Amino acid sequence: MERFEILSPAGDIENFYEAINSGADAVYMGLSKFNARMKAGNISIEELSSIVRYAHIKGVKVYITLNTLVSDGEMKEVVSLVSEALRCGVDAFIVQDYGIIGELKARFPEIVLHGSTQLGVHNRYGAMIAKQMGLSRVVLSREVTLKDIKDIRENVDIELEVFVQGAMCVCFSGNCYLSSLKFGASGNRGECKQLCRLCYGATLADKEYNGYFLSPRDNCMIDYLSELVSLGVVSFKIEGRLRRRGYVGIATSVYRKVLDEVLLKRGQASARYSDEFLIFDKEKSNFVSSNKWLQNRVSNKSKTGSVEDFVEEKRLLQKVFSRGDFVAGYFDGNDVIDELHNSHMGELIGSVVSCKKFKDIYRIEIESSQPIRKGDGLKIGSDDSYISLGVGNVEINNNKYIVYGKNYTASKSEVYRILDSELESEERDLSLYRKVNIDIDASTGKNLTIVAECAGREIVLSGAECGEAKSRPITVENFTTVFDRLSNGFAVGSLRVNLGQNVFLPLSEIKAIKRSLEEKLLDIFSGVDSLEVESGLEVVSGECSLSGIAIIDDMKKHYDISNYDGVVYSPEQYSVEGLNAFIKTYGTQGKKLFLRLPIIAMVDDLNIIDKMVEVAICNGVALMCENIYGLYYVSQGAEVWAGAEMNLTNLYSLSYLKKMGVVEFVASIEKWNNRIQETYKLCKGNRVLMTMTHCPYKTINHRILNNTNLSCDKCLYAKPIKLVQENKSYYIRRYKVANCYFELVDSVCNNSSASHFVDDLRGVYV
Predict the structure, then answer these.
(1) What confidence score (pLDDT) does residue 335 get?
(2) Where does 239-304 show beta strands of DSSP type E?
(3) Mean pLDDT of the 279-299 span
(4) What is the spatial distance between Cα 580 and Cα 314, in angstroms, rounded to a whole number?
C-alpha cells in the first residue's frame, strides 16, 4: 500500500504532540541549530529520543530540518548532531547545503535525505540531480505548476513533496538575500527578518501607491489534493513551525479528513489505516480497527474534489490563519500578492456599531453574525489600519456584543475574528494506537506467563508463581480490567486469558507484569543500538582561476571588458539568436565566455535553454549555473561552473560538486558579516536580492491604474519599477525565457533598460 502522508510542522514539543493527535502521518522539526526556523522553540537533542519513539509507536515518521547553509567550522557539529539523531531513530533529514549532502552521504551511506525547498528543485533536471546525489525525496519549490509536477513525475523516480497550506515566500526559496544583506540576518540561516511583509511605496508611470507589494497570500491546496495524488505526490506539507498549537491541530485535522476522502473516492486508503493500528472511537468509548473507523468516519456523500465540496474546511483554515483570501500556489496563475494585507485576517464576523469612552478605556459595541467569547482575538478597522484586541469580559445587549479595549474604533469598522478560543481549545485525538495482541496463562503452581505480539515482534514474560485460592480466586475480569488500557500509545487488540481452576494471584502481580510488558513494548521502538560512521569527504582547495568576471545582458551596447578575465552573458531575453550574437561580439577577445543559466527554469523554459546549451557546448562557452538543475548539463558534455546563487559557503560544497564534475566556483552572494570566512564574495554593485515568479507589473498596475483587465498579451513592462521602504530604494526588473521572471535589485541600472550592465564579480577567495 502506497504511503501518502500529511506532513505537519512541530515548532516545539507542544505542537509535536498536537500534530500527532490531529492525524499527522509525519512531523518535521528543527533542532537547536542549523534549521530555517531558528525563532521557533525547536527540539533539544536530549528530548529527541523519547519523542521519536512515541511518534513511531503511533506510526508517525519524524524528519529533522537541517535546511540551512553552514561554514567549514560548523560541519563537525552538524555531523555530531546527525549522528545523535540517527541513534534516536530519526527517519530522514531535510537538507539544503551541498556540503551537508555530500558529507552525510559519505559518513552515513544509508541515511535518508530529503531535498529542502531551499534547494530549489522545480524541474526534471533538478530532480534527476537530486536523485543522483542520493536524495530519496525533494520538497518542490512553491512556484511549480501542475504541468511542472507532471513533467518531473514522468521523468524521475523520486518521491515528491508539495507545500499544501500556509505562508509562501515571494522570492524563489533559497535565493532571497534582502534580510541578509540589509541586516546580516540570513534566510539561509533561519534568521529572516521578513522584510517582504513591510509596506512599500511604488512608483510606476509617474504614479505612486503604498501597499504590501512583496507580501504573498497564504497557500491552500485543498481543491487540488485529488489531482496531486493522481500526479504521484506522496507528501502534503503544512507550513507553520512558528504557528500556535491551534493552527497546527486544525490544519492537520482538516487535511487528514480531506486526504482520507480523496483516497477513498479513488478506491485507496492511506497506509496508516493498517491492521497494526487501532483508533479510539469517542462515540463508542472504545478502541476499534482503524480501517473500520475510517469507513464510518467518511461521509457516504459522493465527493468530487471540486471547490464546492470543501467550503467548510477552507473556512476553518481561514479562521486559524490567512492573509486575506487564499491562493492555490501558482496553480491558478501568478496572482499571489495581497497588497492590502500582510498579517492574519481571520474571518469577517461583523462591524462596529458604536465606540464610547468608558473610564480609561473604550466600550465597543459590535454587531456580529457569530458569538464572540472570552479568549477570542479580534482585528478591527478598515483597509487603512487595524487594531488587534484580545477579548476579556463579553456582554450581550439587544443581540449586540460589547467588548472593551484601549483604542478607539470608528463605527462601521469591520470586525474579524483572528482567534476562535472555542475552536482552538477543542480536544482532538485522531492519532493511531499500536495494536498489541496478548495471551495470558495463569495456572496453579506455575508462573504467570504473558505472550504478546506487536509490530511483528513477540514478547514473552514470566511473572510470579500462581497459588491456590483459599477463598476468592482470581477471575478473567480481573485481567481484563487491568489490561483495559495500555500507556505510551499502545492499545490491546485481543486479550485471551487461559485461567486455571481456583487460581490465586495478588492484583499487584498482574499490574507488575503489565508494567513490564509496557517497558518491553517501548524497547521495540527505541533507537538503534549502534551506528557505523564512514570517513567523510576529501576536502579540496577553493581558489578561483579567474580574478574578475563581467556580467552583461544588453547586446545593443558594446562594453569594455579589457579588465576582466571572463564575460558572462545573462540576457534579458533568453534566445539562441542572442547567444550567437554574444559569441560573435566577445568571442574574439581572448576572454573566458559563459552563458548564465537562469535560477528558475520551468518545463516550457527548458526547451529554450536546452537549445542554447547546445550552442554553448559547440562554441566552447561554459555554463554558469545558479540552481541545482544546471548540474545536469555536466552529463551533456558542458563545462559547468557553480555561480553566485548556488549558495556555496563551505569547502565541503566545493569538494562535493567537484566530484560531480563542476569545474570552478564563483561568488557566494551572502557575506554573513564575516561569520563565515572561507567563502567567495560578491563585490558591491547591482546585487540581485530576490528572484520572483509572479508579475509585479500586474500587481502594482492593478493598484495604481485600477486596471483589472491586465494580461500578458497587453504587457505593461517598460522599465524597472521603483519601490521605497524607509528611504531605501529598490528596483524590480524583468528577464524572460519562455516565461517572465523578475529580480529585486538594490540599485538602479545605469541605462533605461533592465540591464545588468557590467557587474564586477571578482571571485577572490578570502
Answers:
(1) 85
(2) 277-281, 286-289
(3) 81
(4) 51
Question: Alpha-carbon distance 19 to 28, whole Å?
Answer: 10
Is a pLDDT exceeding 70 seen at residue 454?
Answer: yes
What is each CA distance from 427 to 253, 423, 430, in whole angstroms?
Answer: 11, 9, 10
Q: How far is CA 716 from CA 118, 602, 605, 700, 731, in A?
A: 31, 23, 21, 11, 16
Looking from the CA of 538 toward its CB, the CA atoms found within 13 Å total 2
- Residue 608, helix vs strand vs coil: helix
* Pairwise pLDDT comparison (298 vs 505), residue with the higher score: 505
The CATH number of domain 5-168+216-272+306-320 is 1.20.120.80 = no
Q: Output the pLDDT for position 533.
A: 82
Q: What is the pairing mode between strands 113-115 and 92-95?
A: parallel
Instruction: Name the one residue in this structure whose C-alpha cell is 561554514.
Output: 71
Residue pLDDT, tens place only, 6-37: 999 998 999 999 999 999 999 999 888 787 66
Dihedral sign, Cα of residue 513, residue 519, residue 524, residue 528: negative
Q: 347-424 belongs to which homologous superfamily?
A: Translation factors (2.40.30.10)
- Cβ–Cβ < 8 Å for 647, 69: yes
Q: Are 270 and 191 in contact (CB under 8 A)?
A: no
What cell was used for 523?
524497547
Answer for the pair 665, 654: CB distance below 8 angstroms, yes or no: yes
Number of H helices, E strands in the chain: 18, 37
C-alpha count within 13 angstroms, C-beta hemisphere, residue 302? 1
The rounded distance, in Å, linking the Cα atoms of 493 and 484 is 10
User: Nearest CA to 19 among 327, 322, 239?
Assistant: 239
Burial class (CB in 10 A: 0-12, 13-18, 19+), 280: middle
- Which grid coordinates are listed for 278? 487501532
Q: Which CATH architecture has domain 549-760?
A: Alpha-Beta Barrel (3.20)
Q: What is the mean pLDDT of residues 59-83?
A: 92
The whole model's pTM is what?
Answer: 0.92
Burial level of 509, CB count in 10 A (0-12/13-18/19+)?
middle
pLDDT at 304: 46
Q: With b meaning 16 or more CB within 10 Å and e meaning fewer, what string describes 91-115?
A: bbbbbbbbbbbbbbbbbbeebbbbb
Residues of the chain with CATH 2.40.30.10: 347-424
Q: For residues 368 and 111, what is the distance between their CA atoms, to the nearest angstrom?
A: 54
- For helices 603-618 and 124-132, angle between their N-to-C axes, nearest 10 degrees: 70
Pairing of strands 457-465, 207-211: unpaired
Cα distance between residue 688 and residue 690, in whole Å? 6
**Cβ 254 vs Cβ 320: under 8 Å:** no
Q: Which of 669, 665, 667, 668 is nearest to 687 (CA)?
A: 669
Joined grid coordinates for residue 623: 555554463
Question: Rounded distance, CA 649 to CA 72, Å?
Answer: 8
User: CB-based contacts of 38: which residues, under 8 Å, 6+ apart?
Assistant: 30, 189, 190, 191
Cα separation, 242 vs 10, in Å, equals 9
Cell of 266: 479513488
C-alpha 204/C-alpha 120 separation (Å) is 31
Torsion of CA 507, 508, 513, 518, to 10 degrees: 110
- Which amino acid appears at position 726 of this protein? E
